Amino acid sequence: MGEEICQVSCQVNVIHQKQVKQATEMMPEEHLVSDAAELFSLLGDNSRLRILQALTATELCVCDLAAILNISSSAVSHQLRLMRTKGLVRYRKEGKVAYYSLADNYVRFVLSNTFEHLRGGLSR
Questions:
Q1: C-beta neighbour count of 65 within 10 angstroms
Q2: Domain range for 67
Q3: Of the four, 29, 89, 104, 106, which is 20 to 30 A from 48 by CA?
Q4: What are the CA-CA distances from residue 55 to residues 88, 108, 120, 122 (Å)?
């Protein structure tokens, strides 16, 4: 038996001024909302999430990531380029090899909390 989806809405039209004011004051500037939407869109790709998750363990080169994800090096490079432009990953060169890592601990935090939430470990 499938779950029934029940839509719940107010039965009266009332605006709670205090709560509306509080939420409005906490609303980020429109350009930040737009940037956040673009970032979430970028994170909405399986390959990119898997690359980021692999980079939570250690820094890796394109060849390493291609082997882990079982996709081509060019596909990995393309995804890394997109993520680099949005500040999710960074790289360092060592000779002819570029090693990628997460740009900062915030990316690790977001990934960790997202997967924990999906496993049911965070309050809903």
A1: 22
A2: 57-124
A3: 29
A4: 11, 9, 23, 23
CATH number of the domain bearing residue 101: 1.10.10.10
Give the closest residue to 55 by CA, choosing from 42, 43, 36, 68.
68
pLDDT tens digits, one per residue of 53-81: 999 999 999 999 999 999 999 999 999 99
Torsion of CA 24, 36, 114, 107, to 10 degrees: -120
Domain count across the chain = 1
CA-CA-CA-CA torsion sign (87, 92, 98, 104): negative
| Sheet strands side by side (includes 97-102) | 60-61, 97-102, 89-94
Identify whether the C-beta of residue 102 lies closer than 8 Å to the C-beta of residue 89. yes
Report the alpha-carbon distance of residue 82 to residue 61 in Å, rounded.
16
23-49: pLDDT as tens digits: 999 999 999 999 999 999 999 999 999
